[in-house]
Amino acid sequence: MRTYTNVKDLGNLNAAIKEALEIKKNRFAYKHLGENKTLLMVFFNSSLRTRLSTQKAGMNLGMNTMVLDINQGAWKLETERGVIMDGDKSEHILEAIPVMGSYCDIIGVRAFAQFENKEDDYQEKILNQFIQYSGRPVFSMEAATGHPLQAFADLITIEEYKKKDRPKVVLTWAPHPKALPQAVPNSFADFMNEADVDFVITHPEGYELAPQFVRGAKVEYKQDKALEGADFVYAKNWAAFADPNYGQIISKDMSWTVTTEKMALTNNALFMHCLPVRRNMIVSDDVIESPQSIVIQEAANREISAQTVIKRMLESL
Ligand code: CP
Predict the structure, then answer these.
(1) How far is the CA of 112 from the centre of ligand 1 (A)?
(2) pTM
(3) Which of 50, 237, 304 has most ligand 1 atoms within 8 Å of CB, for mutation?
(4) Which of 29, 34, 64, 191 can bridge 151 by disulfide, Cβ–Cβ 3.0-4.6 Å?
(5) pLDDT tens digit string along 249-259?
(6) Domain 3-146+301-316: which topology?
């Protein structure tokens, strides 16, 4: 595997889940693969889970790991060609990327949507420059339009906790005080559309996701109706995708918060969220603290999704 940015990069999804669950049973079985190999994790944005779980995954595989926070201690990077660099950016990304590549064997990149230009975000300009110029296998640790390590962990978690062959999985928008990227819901939809689940997306009108991620999924604008019979409720906020509101908050409707009353509409559903989560905006204290909440188990599976991807990249070196 040379790149990991979306569900297709995993190939056969059932085989990938099986491999992940095998790794989970014995996470040090492939320690020899990473001997004398270096994982570089490059962060343009903050992280708790991705940073720790991916570093742990690399260590489980016997790798040396390095972390670079671009905005804390590194030179500020210019990302556009043709710019006269007379401002505060000291280095161009087109030199920085191959230099980073020369110090490592595999690179993970986190670079969120900037919400300044929709085309730039949806062309994944930063992630794709790493793929093009680093000379190394590159995986997304959440880029502008996707968070495939999260979605893979989500799918592994659903596989572990499902009580029927084809569970109903509902992705619901929920309110948030800040404008958040569409990366997590995009990738969740990308994976659920390929998985053996009955997948429904619910959100207020105006929050439609990009069609290349929604594909054939059912979209239901009435949250209560969508939740009926759900086996898994996956809550997430995202800012508007559709023009002219790209990157903006168009609703903070608190009636979309996932509460005990909302969960009562479901088939005793399990509650999921990628974390970090704003309590009593996205989900009530009662729901996230209930036995139905599997957010911690979901986060723990981030180590397993990362390890499966990095293992495949090590095997391709
Ligand atoms: N879910 C997730 O990616 O968490 P972090 O932003 O803390 O890495």
Answers:
(1) 11
(2) 0.97
(3) 50
(4) 191
(5) 999 999 999 99
(6) Rossmann fold (3.40.50)
